[in-house]
Amino acid sequence: SAPTPAQTPAPTPAPTPAPAYATFSGELELSVSDPAAFVANPAAKTATAEVIAEKAEVSVAYVDVTLSVVGARRLGTQRRLEGSVKVDYTVTMPESIAEVARSKMAEVSKDDLGTAFGNKLTDYTVAVTSTEVGSLETVTPAPTPAP
User: How far is the C-alpha of 105 from the C-alpha of 56, rounded, in Å?
Assistant: First the structure.
């Protein structure tokens, strides 16, 4: 019988380039009926990330938030604390949608954000007192190591 021709090895596929990501950070200041409880509540943190994702029109998986109490004061005889909560957030998403997401977040009004918080967090009275959106930055992902 005829000898079998040697198999030509298949070319090694080039590694697929990782998709480019972009990020922007921002800050919200919220006037909250009970800031310490708000910051300690995981549901409040989740709802905050959801509000940002909804307004930027991105997946909540792209949003990272940190909550901190700014200051609190006693209100008369009510014994409830009202004060501010600072929200530091970072949105990291595929570069293809980043510019649109950032501009949507930059254009959203404090009232619209406040309404969104009110719809998600019925246990708290939340008003957005300031909002700030940073510039867009491209993130170069680390190459995925070969298995």
Answer: 5
List strand residue ranges (DSSP E) for the chain, in order. 21-32, 63-74, 81-94, 126-133, 137-139
Q: How far is Cα 119 from Cα 13, in angstroms, rounded to an integer?
A: 50
Grouping H, G, I as helix, E, B as strand and the rest as coil, residue 68 is strand
Helix (H) or strand (E) holding 9: none
DSSP states along 24-55: EEEEEEEEESSHHHHHH-HHHHHHHHHHHHHH
Closest among 30, 57, 24 to 45, alpha carbons compared = 30
- pLDDT tens sequence across 92-137: 999 999 999 999 999 999 999 999 999 999 889 999 999 999 999 9
